[in-house]
């Protein structure tokens, strides 16, 4: 029996999350494994109900669960708050830190039937299938920071800080993932300028010997931002610092034109967290228009990374593939000639293919 | 009389820089203004000849000049050096710091006849005409940094540090540039996470009242990396921190498919520096294949920003436009049906159109 904390959050969250839960229920019935789901508040919904984006009872529930499934948080209702108190920041950052989720895995791959939707030309985006491994509990986000008066004005700083141990654990994970894929790892840094990047590079180099099957390449972050647009198919696994990973993974997520299709996993602690890459899309919330596939694919990542149910994960991914191949589309990926379906209908189609 | 320091550098530098110099000579003859050019060593060439990427006599020459024209630095010959000693880093960073060049201006615009070469679909890239104003002497590049033993391993850090005054001067410049263009300024930060970004945002907001004609928008850096790919034409002027600007400007430079066409200016001190965005392209060096247009357009930026010769700058840009419209192309922007020309030939064509 696995306990799953379910945090629908805001906007389209409460519409897409139930579709993924129902997919997991089908998987449970097929495999004879029981999943026990418990819901809790997070984000704007939690601010409204409890005055806090991450109430202690939600954090407790996550800690006592085997995995967390999150929808999305945030919306215009809370945009008047200072940036650091908005649902995204005030819920996600402490959740990651408290659960020790030091690795954020963000695949970006081209679903062939959706190539039309990419901003890139077909020949450029063809074959894109990469995964970004972003360090998630260190670096510029969590190093010492301060703002203070200085003379007539102020000064403020943040610190990009890493220890050998922090770099080693994320790099080892990235090597392992590369080893299970096409065996090509790109470590992204700014070692020509940053001291922390030099420690990063040396530490990554130090692990190379343990993974002789993996080809390791170092790339500067500015060059990586160029290469992702010019030739995204050159990448297999990318590993990088927290802030660099934030930027590059968002960039990567739009290349294939199907951000509504992209899942993510935040792992490394006792409990891992799974959520779609897209946001809470308040403009279409409550209209059954949202695409539940990224959340369903996040549930597939849960099966793989938290429960080692690789076969079940692959079955869910294959079901999604078949639904797309049959021409079913939610509004975000619709093109003329395909069949437009709503959120619940798309979920049902995937379950039928399972 | 204006004194111009000419630093050809490495790779294709010595081929492209003379073409821009000759364009400036034509402008000089037409306008009756004398330009005096003095060459100096920089980058790998300087390492080889003097043992230093930025010899003191080169720096002195720059200081005594009215503007600096730089080709490109670096190449495989020096890649065995540690990253921080390679020509790019060891020449460019101290040059910027010593000359007080706190603002790097990098336009990215679509040359209509070249849309074919963009990795983006035509309808996505259409209308792209933006300029990134990158802070260049502060932020993560220049804040306190250290690497030291800690327990069994090491720790290392860099500091993203800004004062109100540093932010104010770059923001004011960006407002002014926006005001002379389409009056839309996007300030890019990560204010939901970074303390330095909050000071950045507050300081930019503080200047808003002085530029009522400019619409100011704040955008998170991860979102900006997405938007640059999805809808680059939405941007006019982007202002941002040093590292963010490094990443975003390189990303932006490949969107239009014509990095060989993009100039840059680094300004803010007594003397400004102009250089093409592309690198030293060692693979085609010495073959008369390089595109001199980015360097020629950098010279046009020099006319505009250093010498206030706006009309002459516009004339150079127009001449480049006419040469392209007539179908002349260097190898990097060649497509079937156009006329392939070499470096010197392209330079001569521009001068003929002047
Ligand atoms: C909301 C924000 C704090 C978060 C981040 O920057 O990590 C988001 O952008 C993400 O990538 O998950
Ligand atoms: C070579 C390097 C130090 C430099 C930078 O990062 O500033 C380069 O990438 C640039 O953008 O001009």
In short:
Chains A, B: Residues 3-350 form the Isopropylmalate dehydrogenase-like domain. Chain A has 354 residues and is of the alpha/beta class. Chain A has helices at residues 13-31, 44-50, 56-63, 87-99, 122-125, 164-179, 195-207, 221-230, 242-255, 293-305, 310-325, 343-353, and strands at residues 2-9, 35-39, 67-72, 103-109, 129-135, 146-150, 153-163, 184-189, 215-220, 237-240, 263-267, 272-276, 328-329, 339-340.
Which kinds of small molecule does this entry bind, naming each only once? 3-isopropylmalic acid
Number of discrete helical segments of chain A: 12
CATH topology of the largest domain in chain A: Isopropylmalate Dehydrogenase
CATH architecture of the largest domain in chain A: 3-Layer(aba) Sandwich
Based on DSSP secondary structure assignment, what is the total number of beta strands of chain A?
Answer: 14
Relative strand content of chain A: 15-25%
Q: Which residues of chain A form runs of ≥5 with pLDDT under 50?
A: none
Indicate the multimeric state: homodimer
CATH class of the largest domain in chain A: Alpha Beta
User: How does the major sheet of chain A shape up?
Assistant: 10 strands, mixed
Question: What average pLDDT do the residues of chain A reach?
Answer: 96
**Topology order of chain A in helix (H) and strand (E) letters:** EHEHHEHEHEEEHEHEHEHEEHHEEH
Q: Considering the protein shown, what is the CATH homologous superfamily of the largest domain in chain A?
A: Isopropylmalate Dehydrogenase
**Secondary-structure-derived class of chain A:** alpha/beta
């Amino acid at each position: 029996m696995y306990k799953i904390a379910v945090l629908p959050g805001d906007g389209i969250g409460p519409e897409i999350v139930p579709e993924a839960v129902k997919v997991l229920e089908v998987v449970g019935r097929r495999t004879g494994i029981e999943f026990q789901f418990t819901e809790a508040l997070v984000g704007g919904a939690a601010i409204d109900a409890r005055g806090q984006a991450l109430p202690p009872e939600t954090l407790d529930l996550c800690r006592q669960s085997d995995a967390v499934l999150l929808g999305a948080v945030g919306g215009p209702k809370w945009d008047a708050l200072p940036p650091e108190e908005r649902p995204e920041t005030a819920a996600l950052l402490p959740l990651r830190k408290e659960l020790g989720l030091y690795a954020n895995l963000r695949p970006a791959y081209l679903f062939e039937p959706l190539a039309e939707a990419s901003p890139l030309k077909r020949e450029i985006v063809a074959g894109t299938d990469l995964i970004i491994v972003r360090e998630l509990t260190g670096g510029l986000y969590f190093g010492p920071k301060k703002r203070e008066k200085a003379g007539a004005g102020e000064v403020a700083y943040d610190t990009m800080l890493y220890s050998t141990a922090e770099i080693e654990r994320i790099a080892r994970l990235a090597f392992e993932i590369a080893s299970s894929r096409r065996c090509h790892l790109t470590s992204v840094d700014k070692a020509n300028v940053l001291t922390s990047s030099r420690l990063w590079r040396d530490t990554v180099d130090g692990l190379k010997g343990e993974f002789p099957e993996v080809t390791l390449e170092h790339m500067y972050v500015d060059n990586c931002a160029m290469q992702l647009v010019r030739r995204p198919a050159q990448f297999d696994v990318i590993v990088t610092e927290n802030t660099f990973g934030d930027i590059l993974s968002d960039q990567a997520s739009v290349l294939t034109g199907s951000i509504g299709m992209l899942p993510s996993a935040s792992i490394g602690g006792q409990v891992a967290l799974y959520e779609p890459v897209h946001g809470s899309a308040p403009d279409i919330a409550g209209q059954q228009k949202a695409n539940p596939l990224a959340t369903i694919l996040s549930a597939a990542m849960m099966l793989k990374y938290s429960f080692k149910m690789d076969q079940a994960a692959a079955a869910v991914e294959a079901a999604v593939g078949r639904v797309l191949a049959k021409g079913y589309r939610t509004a975000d990926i619709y093109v003329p000639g395909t069949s437009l379906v709503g959120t619940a209908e798309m979920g049902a189609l995937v379950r039928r293919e399972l």
